[in-house]
Write a structure and sequence with these properties.
Layout lengths: L2 E3 L2 E3 L1 E5 L5 E5 L4 H11 L6 E4 L5 H11 L4 E6 L2 E5 L7 E2 L10 H12 L1 E5 L12 H9 L3 E5 L2 E5 L7 E3 L5 H12 L4 E5 L5 H12 L3 E3 L5 E5 L7 E4 L4 H14 L2 E5 L7 H9 L3 E4 L3 E5 L8 E3 L11 H8 L5 E5 L10 H6 L3 E5 L2 E5 L8 E3 L3 H13 L3 E5 L11 H7 L3 E5 L2 H6 L6
Helix pairs in contact: 1-2, 1-3, 1-6, 3-5, 4-5, 5-6, 7-9, 7-11, 9-11
The chain binds ligand EPZ.
Length: about 450
């Protein structure tokens, strides 16, 4: 039986580190694109088929929330769903689950566009610092909607939605996507300036265009949207997950492995590849796959997280884990979220020498990390701790992997297929009993 810790069961990975990861791995569809696309799919009454959908808890929670307001979700296969939103019967999404995911706010933009009214429980998501939604609210208001927060709900309403010129004060993925959703069905033209340029912003725009929206400029910092009256059904395949791919690239780097990463768009991985090359890895790019070989000990580097095309904040914990065992002193600066170094204490338990000063981590590389009992504090940090454990000497137990499963499909199974000694258990008792396959 799973161990209950507060209101959730504790699942763990037990990892015996030290073997290089070698082989091939297939990357799933992008979680953060999927979240925007799923919400957008309810903006038409006609059926929409979405392919290459990752089977992770964040997307599954969003689908449950959509079902709670009358959207019909048919799973055609593990990675394909058919969404029919012709019979939405409520504009209030209050499900207990939805509070756990950040992307709940996309339902707000989607419903506001289609029905001119929506209330959604305030978004949760990973605890990586204060995560304001003022830019989303500013965007909706600029389109003519009222927005208020009360009783834990954020509600928005408009008699008419009218296109507008919106300058975002910060580069934000969430607000860029949310405004695109609502503005697609507004009257007239909307211009979003200082828009986020992430691949998943482009993917959501392409998806909306495939439903009949008119969005130009996604992928640049000015997005122009001509509102249309109605959207129609479509079949669409989600782009590969840049961050899942990047995580496996670092899995090769930290274990001195050799991995062919399949189903990727190498262009989306350029900032990650560039850093890994600086750190001494070899990278070979193909059309839709990439091979990374780490033949020797990694070298130090300095990096600052930035909006796309800069180095992604969602790869920051993974690069810190890798630099913890590299040669020399590295500095990693986090410029997007204020509290994204909470996992550093866990790396220190494994023998890492890291000091956090303000928004920078100063990392003195050690020869080898050692296995320990560590806890995943959030999704990407959790994945980074798994990478550290794969490189460490001896056994590690990674607790609270529920966070990792929000965004990585079959993480331990994929790692095992690359030769990792990793088992998943759902109780401390099982954890002690786990038997490793030693390759
Ligand atoms: C998205 O979060 C991703 N989540 C995050 O991925 C990712 O870390 C982040 O973008 C940055 O790339 C989803 O797509 C569901 P932002 P989001 O709005 O949209 C500030 C993961 O691990 N800001 O781009 O919430 C904000 O505080 C997750 O998959 C405002 O000030 O991030 C931050 O400093 C974690 N006001 C910066 O903008 C606002 O209204 C960027 O945030 C909105 C954001």
């Amino acid at each position: 039986m799973p161990v209950n810790k507060g209101d959730h069961k504790v699942e763990q990975y037990i990892i015996s580190g030290g073997s290089p990861l070698v082989g091939e791995v297939e990357i799933c569809g992008a979680k953060n694109a999927a979240l925007g696309i799923l919400a957008a799919s309810l903006m038409t009454d006609e059926p929409v088929i979405i392919e290459n959908l990752p089977d992770v808890s964040d997307t599954n929670v969003l689908l449950q929330a959509m079902e709670s307001i009358g959207v019909v979700v048919d799973r055609l296969s593990r990675h394909t769903v058919k969404i029919s939103a012709g019979a939405v019967n409520s504009l209030i999404v209050e499900s207990a689950y939805i509070k756990k995911i950040r992307a709940s706010y996309y339902i707000l933009g989607a419903l506001l566009g289609k029905y001119r009214k929506a209330s959604v429980a305030l978004p949760g998501g990973c605890n990586i610092g204060s995560r304001p939604i003022d830019q989303h609210m500013k965007g909706f208001k600029a389109l003519g909607a009222s927005v208020r927060i009360s009783h834990g709900l954020i509600s928005t309403e408009a008699d008419r939605l009218v296109g507008s010129h919106i300058y975002l004060d910060v580069v934000t993925v969430g607000a860029t996507i949310n405004i695109m959703l609502a503005a697609s069905l507004a009257e007239g033209k909307t211009i979003i300036e200082n828009a986020a340029k992430e691949p998943h912003v482009v993917d959501v725009a392409n998806f909306l265009n495939s439903m009949g929206a008119s969005i130009k400029g996604a992928g640049t910092d000015i997005i122009r949207i001509k509102g249309v009256e109605k959207l129609h059904g479509t079949t669409y395949s989600i782009i590969p997950d840049q961050i899942e791919a990047g995580t496996f690239m670092f899995a090769a780097a930290i274990t001195r492995g050799d991995i062919m990463i399949k189903n990727v768009i190498p262009k989306h991985l350029e900032s990650i590849s560039a850093k890994l090359i600086e750190m001494g890895c070899e990278i070979e790019e193909f059309d839709d796959q990439l091979r990374i070989v780490a033949a020797k000990r990694l070298m130090k580097t300095h990096v600052k997280t930035l909006p796309y095309p800069g180095f992604p904040t969602d790869m920051q914990p993974q690069i810190v884990a890798a630099l913890a065992t590299s040669e020399g002193t590295s500095v990693v600066t986090e410029s997007i979220f204020e509290n994204r170094f909470r996992y550093v204490d866990e790396l220190i338990k494994m023998g890492a020498l890291i000091k956090v000063e303000g928004n920078s981590a100063i990392i003195e590389g050690v020869n080898r990390l050692t296995g320990a009992l560590i806890q995943a504090p959030d999704l990407r940090a959790g994945a980074a701790l798994v990478l550290a454990a794969l490189a460490a000497e001896g056994e590690s137990v990674v607790d609270d992997i529920i966070y990792i499963e929000r965004g990585y499909e079959d993480f331990h199974i994929k790692l095992r297929s690359l030769g990792a000694c990793i088992e998943k258990t759902d109780s401390n008792k099982d954890a002690r009993r786990a038997v490793f396959k030693v390759s």
